[in-house]
Amino acid sequence: MFSRVLLRSLEKIFKTTGCTKRNYSPKISFNKVTDSTVKSLRDLLGEKKVFTEEAVREQHSHDESYHTSAMPDVVVFPDSVEYVSKVVAFCNTNRIPVVPYGTGTGLEGGVNAVQGGVSINMKNMDKVVEVNGLDFDVTVQPGITREALNSYCRDTGMWFPIDPGADCSVCGMCATSASGTNAVKYGTMRENVLNLEVVLPDGRIIHTSGKGRRAKKTSAGFNMTNLFVGSEGTLGIITQATVKMHGIPEKTVVAYCHFKKIEDAVDTVIQIVSSGIPVAKCEFLDDSAIKAFNAYSDYHMPVAHSLFMEVHGPEASVHHLFNEITTLCISNNGYGFTGAEQAEDRARLWKARHEMLYAVNALVPGSKSFVTDVCVPVTKLTEIIVKTKQWIDKANIIGPIVGHVGDGNFHVFFPIKPGDTTALNTVLDISKQMVLLSLALNGTCTGEHGIGLGKRKYLLQEVGEDGVSAMQQVKQALDPNGIMNPGKIFY
Fold it and tell me: Where does the record place the FAD-binding PCMH-type domain (predicted)?
């Protein structure tokens, strides 16, 4: 329990910062970016690293989400952590918003500059800093993408398996706590980051596990690394990450199977997971998703609810696991079970799966997809996916369902034409129902997209008033001027 003296001290702080006991976010007012601001930034970075042209600002005003674009006032391209530090410190002193920008592949408006300010694009910092092959870890700068990292490390026998689909920047993946198709075996970013270099809002540079540290585990103090993993750029800018690598599997086999009922497909997933079969990928695509998949990527699969699966490991064990999965699929009325071992066949299948966003958009020419995700305990998957399918069918709209169902996470893609407010309101209602049901089933409002702009109102319901207040206290302590990616996570 707080002492009365401490409570009085906190109340005094709340009054002077504009906070209430239950809302630790102060009422922030920002300064405008002026010609003088731009000149100061050019003095810091040089003429060729600071842009105010509308085309560049528009590019940095949005990600892949449905959220309304919001342009920054200026975009900068630093090439070292020292320059990032100088820009952030300058913005903090002058109360100018800062928005970190990776590759712009997010799905919750995380890079939208809703308060204007300075967008910091990290693409010029794209080096692999250190490779430790025998320890299976690497240290990278923020601009390198996961595909570039895997290409760089291919000859070492290591790979970075976290695969959200898009060619995201590794540090952007840290900021959003990304995961993707391989999470069922390899975990999410939270389990695969050993250390982070972070520029704090006042310009200080810290290393969350200590400079140069890369031990596989530690119990030394607070877990600062995972404080920043998933912070969505609201606490600081990640300028370097040390991540775990994994051995490239000796053998990889892909299989897909079709089902007449959603229940049979999802029950198969539950049985695979509960049987302890170490499947690396376990993806669900409903019949609507398969229709889009076939049309966009020139496949000719039966239009039916389907599972795509992948198994990694030594050759003998992989074939044994493949046979076990076959038996489970057939016992749950699966049909058309097909395997693929050739690298080009596997790559084509997963490329088509990762292009699902564009495949869905192609179903309704001129549309842009509203994409939402939730995650529940695996045993609750059948209930929520069946219910979601019913809501979509009842509304008579297009909404393919795709999911990393091996870990309870699934997405719905709703193609909406610009200006169609009726369709958008319908989709928002279905998304809300999905979230509320997910929370009722002890799940989460977002498995991997992040809170961003779209899920802010659900955070309170998920973690509770005191939980949000604690988060806001951390935000207030690290970023008292509120300059870091304002408007995200919290209202």
Answer: 68-248
